Amino acid sequence: MIKPKNIIPKDRKNQRLTDRVLWWIMAGAVALVIGVLGFILAYIAGQALGHLNLGFLLGSASQGGILPMAVTTVYVVAASLILALPVGILTAVFLTEYAGDSRGVRILRLAIETLAGIPSILYGLFGLLVFCRILGFGQSIIAGACTLSIMILPVIIRTTEEAIKTIPDSFREGSLSLGATKFQTIRHVVLPSALPGIVTSAILAMGRVVGESAPVLLTVGIAKNMPRSIFDSGRTLTIQLYYLTKEAINPEDFGIAFATAAVLIILVVIINTATRIISSNFRKKLGGGL
C-alpha cells in the first residue's frame, strides 16, 4: 500500500509551531499583566472595604475624612492640565507642521528631552523658589499647578507630536487641494485626527500629576483645610497617603491609608472617563467641516 506523502512543507510546519508558541507567550504575558493588576486592585479594595463610608469620603480632616484632600487633588490636576495642555499642543503643532530641521529646532527638541529626564524634586525646588517666593504665591495650589505644568510639558509635547506624525500627508494634501488654508487644515483635519493621541498625552500627564509627591509637598503644602481658592494651601491625596503610612502605628491606620489609595484610584478613573467623553465631543465639533 502506498502511503500518502505529507504535502505540507516542513518550513510551513515550523512556522505554524512558531506562531502557536508566540501566541501562548503573548497570552501568558497578557494574563500576567491582568493578574498582577487584578491582585493589586483586589488587595487594596479588600483592605479598604471596611473604611469606605460617607463619613470618610465626605468628612473633614478633623473628622477623619478626606474630602479636603480630594478637592485639593482635583484642583491641582485641573489647573495643571489647563496651564500645560494649550502650550504643549501648540508647541507640538509648531514642531511638526511649521518648524523644519534647523539647528534651533534640534536644540529645542534636546531641551524638551532634557526636561523629561529631570528628577521631580528639582522641579519642586524650582517652584518653591520662583512661584512660592519670587512671585509671591506662597505654598498654594496655583504654585503647585504652575510647577507641575512645567514638569508635564515634555510628556504632552512628545506624545502629541508623535500622534500628529502618524497622520498621512494625503490628509493634508487633500485639504489644501480643496482650497483650505494651512490653519484650517490643522484645525479641521490634523487636530481631529490626532485627538486620540492628545487625549493619551493628557491622561499620561494627569497620571504623573496625581502620583507626584515631592514637588507637591514643596509648593502646595500640607494644610488639611478645605481650599477656598487656588491661592490657598492644601494637601493632596498623595501627600495624605504618605503621612498616613508614615504615622501609622496600628492596623486601623493602615486600613485608612488603603482606603485613601482606593479613593485615589477611583478619582483617576473618573477623570480619565470624563476626559475621554469631553475629547469625543470636542472631536465632533472640530471635525464638523472646513
TrEMBL record:
InterPro entries attached here? Answer: MetI-like (IPR000515), MetI-like_sf (IPR035906), Phosphate_PstA (IPR005672)
The listed locations are: Cell membrane
Reply yes or no: does the keyword tRNA processing apply: no
The species this protein was found in: Breznakiella homolactica
What PANTHER family does this protein map onto? PHOSPHATE TRANSPORT SYSTEM PERMEASE PROTEIN PSTA-RELATED
Name the Gene3D superfamilies on file: MetI-like
Q: Where is the ABC transmembrane type-1 domain?
A: 70-275
Query: What does the entry give for GO biological process?
Result: phosphate ion transmembrane transport
Q: Which Pfam families match?
A: BPD_transp_1
What gene name is given for the protein in this entry?
Answer: pstA
Which molecular function GO terms apply here? phosphate transmembrane transporter activity
Instruction: Report TM segments.
Output: 21-46, 66-95, 107-131, 137-157, 189-210, 254-275
UniProt similarity note: Belongs to the binding-protein-dependent transport system permease family. CysTW subfamily.
Q: Write the protein's name.
A: Phosphate transport system permease protein PstA
